[in-house]
Amino acid sequence: MTRITVAKGDGIGPEIMDATLEIILAAGAKLEIDEIEVGEKVYLAGNTSGIASESWETIRRNKIFLKAPITTPQGGGYKSLNVTTRKFLGLYSNVRPCMSLHPFVSTKHPVMDIVIVRENEEDLYAGIEHQQTDEVIQCLKLISRPGCEKIVRYAFEYAKQQNRKKVTCFTKDNIMKQTDGLFHQVFDEIAKEYPEIENEHWIIDIGAAKMADTPEIFDVIVMPNLYGDVLSDVAAQITGSVGLAGSANIGEECSMFEAIHGSAPRRAGQNVANPSGLLQGAIMMLNHIGQTEIAEKVQNAWLKTLEDGIHTYDIFKDGTSKQKVGTKEFAKAVISNLGQKPTILKPVSYANNLALNLPKYIRKPAAKKELVGVDIFVHWSGSNPNELAEKLKRIESNGTKLTMITNRGIKVWPDGFKETFCTDHWRCRFKPSENSEINKSNIIELLKNALNENIDSIKTENLYSFDGKTAYSLGQGQ
Ligand code: NAD
């Protein structure tokens, strides 16, 4: 018996959760259920996080959380409960299998069977944003070595467990050489530990285009958070319906299982929603807690039901479908197929699944870190970078020299182009002059001088080298 936490959520949530629980309990899932309230009602009662503290206790005690979609009210500073839950509980891995069910569910991609493994905690989802000038707002993209190692290892371990042949990595490291560069580098390092699994890297733009055009050439695809968020919806949708895919959010201690779609408020309360996405989430949950036989039984009954042409409105098509059913009737049909296997679609077998081998992250020895310069960001509403350079030269402290000014990353001084459009947000790079070094006191000196010269410094970024390797980006055009 496993004790789990269940939240029925908003919109179509309660209907698809009832259907899902009915099916898995009828199949013999050994579960004790604690139900909690999350989402719209909790938000509108004045709790901006969408969840009460007692509910957190239940989730943390049970460790396994089956969650229906929730509605995040628009505006008003409501925080997305999904993002908060993933981050609070350290659910670093988001696994989203997207498989075509040809010829029973209409799709342009009959042989598609891919799994998107999305990093779930970092990247732009750190949600650290600041407006710094009248014209410019920044969002910090944070990518960490532990974050990359954990997700890439998860992807390879998952591929090994599921007997999959290839892991592909998508990044944009031709542009983000440091952040996406680290993700790619870690991918190459860890791939070497799995010589039996093919590996490859694609730049995300052409990779995404290929995935939407010829998904059959991919197997497992691992990627940073934002790319994974976007592409897993694309992948689910092109299998035939976003209502078919489930998602597992896995951490070292806790895990959360859900559908990938949202609460579809316009469909709520009409007994029309497809419960398949949440059911797929629940099947991943049963596998995760070791109830693999039940998971297998439910998945095969579900495949058989789709094969029988018993379809909800979102996948119903004259010709291929036989009967258009509501949420409840679909659940009943799956239950009546428990114990049966599909005859044309491939039945699943989960009984021999090996446990994933996911070692804890071990911190690497610290590298030799040297301060080699500083970028001072300045709010200035002038337009001629040469004028700004003249002002900045007056603040050079002992041993530091202005070497470059960029605007939105592109070098505008020295030798800028007059055609380059400039905002009021300038990155001004100071380096030690020849035969000298820079230290933190020099930086403080620079900032003091800026204050005296009425230069509006809005932030600084120290420039470092790690083990002698430059660890910051050059200016574009530098
Ligand atoms: P959505 O996924 O709810 O709906 C998109 C479209 O897909 C709609 O046309 C809907 O009718 C259809 N659809 C979705 N699930 C279906 C199902 N099971 N059966 C049949 N049709 C289905 O996306 P949205 O409209 O952008 O978002 C609605 C709300 O859901 C928003 O408040 C959003 O914040 C929330 N949301 C929650 C989650 C989550 O809780 N994990 C995820 C995404 C969106």
Could you give the count of β-strands?
Answer: 20
User: What fraction strand?
Assistant: 15-25%
Mean pLDDT across all residues, rounded?
95
Ligands (ions, cofactors included):
nicotinamide-adenine-dinucleotide
Number of DSSP helices?
13
Distance between the amino and carboxyl termini: 62 Å
Radius of gyration, in angstroms, nearest whole number: 26 Å
Cα shape: elongated
Known CATH architecture of the domain at 369-470? 2-Layer Sandwich
Structural class: alpha/beta
Q: The CATH topology of the domain at 369-470 is what?
A: Alpha-Beta Plaits
Across the major sheet, the strand order is 2-1-3-12-11-4-5-10-8-9
Q: Roughly how much helix do the residues carry, as a percent range? A: 25-40%
CATH class of the domain at 369-470: Alpha Beta
**Largest sheet report:** 10 strands, mixed
Low-confidence stretches: none
